Amino acid sequence: MRVSKAPQRAYQICSRCVMDTSDPWIVFDCQGRCNHCTDFLERRLSVTAYSTTDKIPSNSDGPEHLWSSIPRNRGLHDVVVGVSGGVDSTSVALLAQKAGLRVLAVHLDNGWDTPIALQNVLQLASLPGITYEAEVLNWNRFKAVQRAFIAAGVPDIELPTDIAIQAALHRAAVRHGIRTILSGGNIANEGILPVCWMYNPRDSLYAESILHKAGLPPSFYAPLKFGFRQELRCRLKHRIRTLYPLNQIRFSKDNARQHLSSAIGWQSYGGKHCESTYTRFCQLIYQPRRHGIDYRRSHLSADICLHQVTRSQALDVLARPAWNDLDVDYDVAFVARKLDFSADQLQTAMASPPCWYIDFPNRQSLLGAAYNSFRILTGRRKASNF
Amino acid sequence: MLQPRLIPVLLVDGQLQLVKTTGFSERHYLGDPLNAAYVFSAFEVDELLVLDIDASTQGRSIPLPFVAALARFTSVPLTVGGGITSLEQIHDLLALGVEKVALSAVLSRSFSFLQQAADRFGSSTISVIVNVRSLGEGPALAWFGRPDAAGAGPGQPLAQLVLASQQAGAGEVVIQAADRDGQRHGYPVAMLAELNRELTIPLVALGGCGSHGHMAELLQATPISGVAAGSLFVYAPGTHQVLLHYPPSHHWLQQHLPALQECWRCV
Questions:
Q1: Is the ipTM reported for this complex over the cut 0.90?
Q2: How far is B104 from chain A (nearest CA, A)?
Q3: Which of A23, B138, B139, B168: disulfide with A194, CB 3.0–4.6 Å?
């Protein structure tokens, strides 16, 4: 059994947020405050609407200056928006549509769509000004990739999907000559996330190392791949840029959910990121059991920093297991069946020792330097992990 | 009172890939059939028809482990078909919890198999798929199995084939308009209405549906037991982009049912 090179540490939890040593690389200062909330408050929030006290657009209006900066296209669409049926992506697509932009809504089908997510996508796709496109991953091949990540023992088993979405959005932009991608990514909700929980999806060496260990050739990764080189080509040759409108408003998921359900009959699926059965399995069952990671911890920590919950409320939430509201046996059986494991094999995998990205060949320092140089050249501030 | 069933049809190929065909040949890849079945089950479809379209040509039947997974992770009435040739296979499939099995190609070689199956398992578990082509002015011709299969022959008059199936104990007959597969121009309404008048067992229409309007058109013409469709339920409306969906029954059919019943009184 492979032993991880991750540091073994005595338990400690941040005195300000609720991040703890379930990130083995967490750093605490002399007052017991961790690097995550410190970085979030001191650097990341500064690029969002939460940094100013000016009159700020609410959830239902768009950031006007952002919309006006988007070049209108000679083709049929002005912007590409990736749509999962979740609250973030639906919000962005709707904001853009209301701002009069012609939206190409691209959905990546990785084989794990939930019925509610699809109903939400349909509601969105039926709106005027929105054109719908689907990219369907070859399930039999993608299944092999997902199996490889489980076999590797790393927590970021959703990395293949994350990067496949980027690849699909950029492919669609190139195909239609669209120069703007609107992302639902936002710092308010996702601004705290340890590197080791979700390592850089643009590090193709890392992903290919995991595939290699499972005996899969790089060709299995090719349709999903979107590394530094691919990104540079899209930015420089095709002049495609990605914008994050939700950082320009005081985005709150609760308000957004209410707004979407009254505006387009959007349905909530309970829990964060559960527009996909696999994401639900990953965040609420697999990672808690195998890695001791609880994704809610990072979301709650961001909420604490934004004064949306108190630290003690967050601790109360975390006291209940992540999988408490799930039919765990059913979910595990379904995931196992889809991935051609027996339920026992999957349970055994979950009980096996964890590995982390550092246990596989990667280009962390090289890519860090590359993206830092890119940021210096384009005058952008670092507000993400990579 | 007749409550027509709206039936999504899922086609899987030899690698258990979900596909949508056009004209029985060109194939469009749609994803994972198990997830699709799970999604349609959550949509509470009236019934789900899952066919392995490579089974007969490859001389095997729809794989049991696949059907077992379908049965386990869905909770709607399930009909499965593809390459079924023996009573044992039917027994094994029914034992997994599927409601009906669909027979077709086997009946072109051994029509008496239909009677044997119906006798042993009961008509209500046996669905027969008839593929039909209407060529110009002449009567529609029908085949069990693919019309273009090796040794498929010139086809038989549709009514004759369907009546024979009814007599042999079929519980229902799915009339698949092979020439309309994937076309989305509508069902062959007149043909189906005429056939439905002559038959006493339930008929299911399949092939050609592209919109809810096409379903309404067929249902207005005849009180048919089932309206089945592939494209309609797997593509976003008016596109060829994959997006599984299904009308909530309280929306679509319930709204139209009183008007439809009025129509049925007149026909």
A1: yes
A2: 28
A3: A23
